[in-house]
Amino acid sequence: MQPENPQPYSAAQTNWPATAIPGRPGAHLHASQAESDDPELSADTGDHGADETEARAEPVTAPDVEPTLGSALLDELRSQITQFVIAPSREALDAITLWVAATHLQAAWQHAPRLAVVGPAKRCGKSRLLDVLTETVHDPMLTINTTPAAIFRSITEDNPPTLLVDEADTIFGSPKVAEKNEEMRGLLNAGHQRNRYVTRVVGNDHTPHRFATFAMAAIAGIGDLPDTIMDRAIVIRMRRRAEGEKVKPFRSRRDVPALHGLRDRIAAWAKPLLDEAADLEPHMPVEDRAADTWEPLVIVADLAGGEWPRRARHACAVMVAAEVAAEEENPSGARILADIRRVFHAQRDVDSLSTEELLHHLRQDDEAPWAEWGRTGLTSRELGRMLREFDIRPGNVRMADRTQRKGYMRNKFLDAWRRYCPTIHPVGADPSLREG
């Protein structure tokens, strides 16, 4: 059985738009279908180790939502995945299911979401999940020991394969190794958006030729992937199975035929919906790049109907909020900005703080890493280096005693705070997730 760690959420808090019915453009389900009380989708959540519900339980369908062919196929795919893999949460399981189905409509998408399957150690189920994905996605292309040149030469613009990259930590795991694989990272980044090409010379006469890069990709590895890839991905944070948690062993001879049969039925269902999928502009519970990445999954859910439109938006809001929170906990990047904002707020939003004062307050935060940063805690030089990435630099500031010291003006942070650590989480998330 599977523990989970979703975030607090109530579907009743958000009024989702009416849901598209496959094959009937402009038709809509009854509005009450978007407001049914699904105990699975509105269950309270907490930290790992709290009373947790079963992530592998069968989806609960509200009585006023009629199942459709599409929703039944997604339910079946979800059930098949749970036989072999313990997902970290119901939301992650729903996201995986929708991502697989979305690979069968790649020609409709403007953005090709990556599925980042990461875990802190070996034996977290990452490779097993890729085994299942290989047998259910559209035209899988395993990239073990495959060069970037071979990959982009295998991508066709009208019918791209689905890239499956295992052991990505051996590609991006250290700066030295990552430097050698910069072309692979560039390919994975460019392929997130349609009409991003690479140009290479081919043939004896070295004729320049454009190669397409657009293709959905699942990338598995130990530890986080490069930030540029994670930012374009739906992140599945796998965990090692706990004692008593069991899954069915994956046996190709026995299990592949059933998975292939399901794959073919999903493809047959999706094919007539290609034009409709390309034209839909769904209401999204998140914005910007997160919306670009999740949009194909939400569209698939809207086409499938049933409970899936609510499941998709719930998973989107919860999982994006979780990654925003994880980013704020990262000592690099936006974490330093968020902590400096809290310092200024605690000091009643004064116009400026000396570098010495700012470092003192940062080190005083027991939940922050700055007191133990390096050998002696965060230094003025290291603080300056981190802030230069956001075009923020120290200068002379006037203190209350009218002396001048090196420090930072609050107004120099305003643009960076607005861009990198907004005060609210993505649209559609539960208000309890918002920063106080």
From TrEMBL:
Residues 1-66 are annotated as: Disordered. Coiled coil: none annotated. Residues 7-17 have a biased composition (Polar residues). It comes from the Bacteria. Residues 237-420 form the DUF3631 domain. Pfam families: DUF3631. Residues 45-57 have a biased composition (Basic and acidic residues). This is DUF3631 domain-containing protein. It comes from Streptomyces ziwulingensis.
